Structure formats: C-alpha cells, structure tokens
Amino acid sequence: SAGSTELSTQRAGAYVITGLIDGWKEVKPNDGESYEDFKDRLTTNECGQYKNDDGTYTLVIKADLSNITNEEIAQAKGYASISDMVSGNLEQRGVDGNYASGLDDIYGNNNAINGRVMYLRFRFYQNYGITVVKDTDESNTATVSLDGNHGTPITKEVTATSTLIPYIGDANVSSTSAKIVKFDKKTNALLAGVQFKLQKLNGDTWEDYTANDGGDLVRTTDANGSIVFNDLNDGTYRFVEVMADEGYNIDSVLYGTDVNNVNDANLTFEVNSSDATGNTIYASNQEFSYNIDYQYVGDVPSDAVVPDSDTVDYGDQYVAKDATDVDGYTFDGWYTDSSLTTKFVDGTAITSDLILYGKYTHNKINVNYVLNGDIPEKAIVPSSDEIEYNSTYDSKDATIVEGYDFNGWYVDSSLTNKYVEGSILNEDLTLYGEYSIKKFTITTEVENGIIDKSINDIPYGSTIKINFCNNPGYEFNSIIIDGIKFDTTNKTQEELNKIISYTFEDIKANHNIKVIYSKIELPNNETNKDNNNNDNNNQKLDLNNTPKTGNDNLFISLVLLLITLASSCLYKLCKAKY
What we know:
- The chain is mainly β.
- The strands form 10 sheets. It has a 6-stranded mixed beta sheet, covered by helices on one side.
C-alpha cells in the first residue's frame, strides 16, 4: 500500500541515518514544524525523524509500492542502515495468490495486487549505548502505522525484549590487589567518573591508604566503572566514595562482594598475599530523590483538589499532574514560583525538590450585541459586556431611532427566542436585535359618495393621496380630518365641488378622513329667498341678491340641471375608478 509509515521509539536521542540505498533521501524537520506537516512534506523514497514533545523520536518512512510489477514483487528489496542506534532493512515481498482472499479478509480489501499481497518488513537492531554490570532485560515498543490507497489504515505495536550482556573485564585480580566496580542500581549501567579511595584499619582507626603501585590516593572509575589498586599490604581495608556522579546520593552507597547482593554500607575486606586472588567489590548507590509538591494560590475554587505529592529520582523527566476541572474557572497552569511568573515545562529533568504553584481564574462571560435586518442609519450597536460567571444579566437599551420600533433582543440570529432579562449566564452570549420601521393606518369614511378604501401598514414618513367623489345628485358639503372639520369658509360651492382628493404628507401617525356630500336642492322662490339669507361657514354661494324674475328662475333651473348631469358623469367616472 502506498503511504507513510512511522515508527515511534521510546528512547530519547536521535538516530543517525546512514547507508540509504540509491534513490532514498533523509529529510530533516524545519524549525517549529508540526509532526503532521513534516510527515505530509515527505515524498516517495524519503525518510526522516521527528523529535516529539516528550523527547522521544518518531522515524517516518514514505514508500510507494503502487507501481511494482508482477516480476518485481518477488525480488525487489531495499536496504537501509541506521547506524549508532539502529540498523535495519526493508523488504518488499509477495505472497502467493492462493492466500490473497484470506489476507484481504484480515488486512482489508484491495491489498491484493496482481494476485499477491504486499507488505513492508522493517528490521531494527538497536545498540543501547550502555555497558551493564550484569544481565539486564530491556524492552522497547515500536508503533507502526500505515495509511495508503489500498484498504483501511493499519496500526500495529511491536514490543521487543532482550537481555543486555554484561561487561566482564578481568575476571580476577591478584592477591595483593583490590578492584572497585561502580554501577547504577536501577539500570545496572557501569558508571565512569566516580572517585574512590582506600582506607586501612590501623588498630581501631581507619586511615587513608595509598597503594604501593605509584597511583594517587583518590582515583576515578574508567569507562567500565572500575578502579584497580595494586601492591597492597596485608590487612583490613574498605573503599570510601569521595565524589559521586551528578545526581547520586553519596550517603547512600552500598557495597557487596556479589553483584547480585550489594547491600552493605560498611563492607570491609581482607588482603592476604597468600591468597590465590584478590578482592573485587561492587558498589552502587541510589540517585537523589526529590519531592514534588503542589499548591494553589489566589482565588481557589472550593471544588479544587490539590494533587498528591510525587517522589522522583534525579534527572527524571517529569510531567505535572492535571488540575481539577472546576465549572466556572479556568486553570492557568503550574508555575515554579509562587508569584506565578515562570511556567513549569512538562518533561523538565528534576534536579531538586520542587513546589508547583497552580492558579485558577474565575471565568468571565462575554456578552456581545449584533443588529440584524434593516438597520437604521442612526442605530448604534451597544458595546460588549464582560460579567462574572453565573451572574445575572439585563440587556442594554437599544438606540431610540425616529420612525423605527426596536423589536427586542433575541438569543438566536433567526430572532425566534427572546432573551429573558435577569437570566443567569454561564457561557458567552450574543444578543441579536432588530428594528422595524413604524407603520400607520389611514381610515376613510364617506357620506353620499365614494372614497378610497382604508390603508394599513403605511411606512413612517410616507405621502398618501386619498381620492373621493360624490354620488349623482349630491354636492360637496364638508371634509373632516382627524376629527377636525376642514375650513371651507372662503370657498364657493363651485370650488368645493372641484375637491376630489386629499394628500397626507410625511405621515408619522394614524389618520382619519371623512368626506360628506349633501343632496342638491332644486331652486324655487322660497328656497331662493332662504338661500339668500343663509350663512354657511363651510361653503359660500356667490349668488345675486336682486329679485329673481321668471327668466331668472328658468336660467337657474338650467344651471342646476347641468350641474346634476355633470355630477352623474363624475359619479360614473368615480365608480369606474374605485
């Protein structure tokens, strides 16, 4: 399967990759590059190693098997050696097609190519780089994951356990010699650079003793953790550690004549020139151990639990424990000082007692405001608020904008659920508001005529024209706007009869209009007489006050007939319009 293969080791320290076969190339990560980016950057026949946050390394190899021919499957092999720490080889092999269907069931579909099942074999031989004093079991686990275009990804862990072979050195020393061998009690590793001296018992007193071989009083262990003191006089001796390796407790050194039984802090031995062999003494001491304690500072939640203390050995890489998750609080991390200026870095090697100081911060709740829909030009979005966790909150007032109604604050952008004032908030909140333009109504009425229907939902500031006309045989009488009678005192009847509409401008309220038409009366002498004496505030008839002759009456009758015919025509026009 084509794809990337990664092998994660559990040991610190980078591999040295050498001896790659032709066509292969080592790629190094860029500064700050993430593991995924590094892996994705590799192309076919490239490999590299990535240092993980915990100090271990992941080896990544990218190979493409998709173009291997049937003949190549059985024979193609690639070799790569990873020196110093690892050496190995890669093998590409095919399995007889009879096994293809069964392996497909195990490893996923499409792993069979041309009747054969493909796989990569990795062999790694690891040199641990340490010398031990006795047989030591060591195990290492490799995690291999394969992702490619022939089936589902495969991840497999392989653990190898082996026995490290001890360094033997000189099996025996001469009868007048004494050898000290220093090793690590946990790993059995032989320790170089440790200083010892010999002391000889003189009566009841221990005295420093310089061997007769010309060496110094104080001597240092070699790469195999050993020092040999030669040409000793007969007597009782003991070894004294003068300077331990860094991190080891010099007060805890123990001795023994058997490497498997090193437990005597006051071991002595005898030198007798008549013996066949001399003395080999094994020494080991504990690494310093350190206490790691935890404390909280500042505003500590009542539910916060202080982690238990830990004890670690010198140089151990330490990862701080998790703090308690507390609702309404954020844990800011562990610090190495009570003033919380220096954060502890997980994986730090411990070389002294340590107190880790942790701090919680009370969560703040952010309340933000957003306006949706048709937003008026003069509308101002309220500023955000920051409040304490689990506290009540009342929303801010929206801007008052002339001609608009504010419909309220909602908790969703679709404006379906209104925010309830005084709600207790335990998470960030966005309030969505909406304006709508004010709407008004014009109500229309008419007596003895026709008028436009009442109009609803008229936007603020609009201009609306209302049309009206009389029924046949009726003439204009009066018009009432919002309960106030329109003053027609200075209008003649002829002028009044020409009024056929009224315009409402810059509407900012509801309005009412009522138009009244009166029946046209046919003239006679009496009525003419009465008309001449009638003073109407809402209309003015401009007629002569001289006595009316018969011819005059005939003329008036003709005029009224023409007015009636005109009214009938006007009514038909109005009816057709409305």
